[in-house]
TrEMBL record:
Name of the molecule in the record: histidine kinase
Keywords recorded for this protein, A-Z: ATP-binding, Kinase, Membrane, Nucleotide-binding, Phosphoprotein, Transferase, Transmembrane, Transmembrane helix, Two-component regulatory system
Signal sequence residues: none
Organism field: Streptomyces sp. R28
InterPro entries recorded: HATPase_C_sf, HATPase_dom, Sensor_HK_TwoCompSys, Sig_transdc_His_kin_sub3_dim/P
Amino acid sequence: MKSVSPRGCAWGFAVGVLLAACVVDVLYAGADGTSVLPTASPVWPILAVLLVGLAAVLWPDERRPERITPQVRTAVPALISALYSVASLVTLKANIFGPGEVLILLCLLFVAVRHCPPRWAWGCGALDVGALLLLPVRYLGPWDADVLGFVAAGLVLVGIFAGLAAYLRTLDYRRTVAVTDTRRSERVAIAADLHDFVAHHVTGILVQTQMARMMAQTQPQELDPVLAGIERAATEALASMRRTVGVLRDTGEEAADRRPVGDLAAIADLTDGFASPIQQVTLRCDPAVSDDLPHEVQAAAFRVVQEALTNIRRHAADAADIEVRLRDDAGRLEVSVADDGRGGTQLPAAAHGGGFGLVGLKERVTALGGELHAGPRDGVGWEVRAVFPAGKS
């Protein structure tokens, strides 16, 4: 049986409350003159207002046409509601409003403040607020003393919804900035690694060239293997640059700290150093995995294991069995780290990290044409898995 997340339950409850409130609005509008409810007004205008508002609030993002922008979503229903209120003043006819329309306008205000572009957020939000404050005038008239009470209550609700939306928008902005900074830092790190790859290959070319010059006079018949080595090192250097340099944009002129570049052999030392008396780390390396992979692929694989083990220590210190696996998957290198932790940790909250390590890791993996997946395992625990195109080019 598929479980329902608490977030899904909360969303379903909110939708149910909104629909129930709209039903109340329709019942108010359709009440007859003998009812304890106010005198009846035509049902179809309020029904049209509610249907447009519900479509704007509940229409799923993935199914909404691109032309239905947040500006259109929040402005059109509010404009229709405001026109209905103005028409009530012009015709001097009382028209009912209820909790459904109030909730819809508050939801639209929330969407306007949080999701509309900055230049539009003020205008769309003001339109939603104006439509909300016009509701009591629709029924009571502009000079009724009770209007002030409704307006005061409306302003309190406006402050709550707009304040919450502005707070969440601020959090979204901060996360966007943090993700951007993380990606930029990771690109700088990739640039440093690229320098190391090229330096490694060029140094090999230089040494073998010097050897070839000496052999040219003493052992000319043995030059062919040396020249082949020079050709192989040059090819690998070009391949490293071609696979990596495309993502090194907009990194500025900041100097990158030189970090040691790990490889597949270093993963064994990494897992041995991570193990503890209460945690067993098992490294399973497929014999089909070649030791002659491109240097940038080996470095990225090392970083995947390093980041995954770091996250286990931060977020799943209760994990007893950790498995690191290197596997050849139809010519591709698959690296996975799985644990059986349930989320227990003894680290202070400040040491848990901001959650951006995987963002930078994904940037590194995709830069090499690979894929990164991180998520819960079947049963208990967590798994990080990366797949790299391991073939040379």
